[in-house]
Amino acid sequence: MMSEAIRKAEVIDKIQQMLTANHRVALESVRSAIDAATNEQTVPEHKYDTLALEASYLAHGQAKRLQECEQDIQAFNSLSDVRNPTKVMVGCLIRLLDESGIGRWVFFAPSAGGMKIRFGDDEVTLVTIQSPLGAVLKGKNVGDEVIYDVEGRQYCYEIGQID
C-alpha cells in the first residue's frame, strides 16, 4: 500500500483535474447557449414564438453552472494542506469501515459534494458539511462511529483512518 500522504495529494490532484474539465465543458455550454440565444434564426416570427426566450433561459442557466464550477475550483485552490490531522476536517481523506469491515474512501471537501473519482481500485466520494455524512463526520476521530440517515435508510461506519 502506498503512503497515505502521497495518496491524498494524488486524490486532490485528480479532483482539481476533474473540476477543470467540468469548467471547460460548462464554458463551452455557455458559449453555445449564448450563440443560440443571439442567433438571427431565433428572432421571434410572431408573438407566440418563444424560441429566443427559451434560449436566453438556457444561456442564463449555463452561466450559473459556469459560476458554480469557478467557485468549486477557487475553493479547492484555497484548500489548506491538512497534515497529520487528529480529527475530521475539510481537506481530510477518510477511510470508513462498515459493520462487515468493508472500507470506502471519502474526501471531506469544501465543495463539489457527490463527485466521485476513481483512484486505483478504489472510488473516492467527495462529501461536504452540507451532506448527511459530512455533518456527522466533522470533528470525529479514528475509531469513532458515525451513524446517519438518508431517505429513511440508516448507515453506520467506523472511522478507520484520517489523512
UniProtKB/TrEMBL annotation:
This is Transcription elongation factor. InterPro entries: GreA/GreB_C_sf (IPR036953), Tscrpt_elong_fac_GreA/B_fam (IPR023459). Keywords: Elongation factor, Protein biosynthesis. It comes from the Bacteria. GO terms for molecular function: translation elongation factor activity.
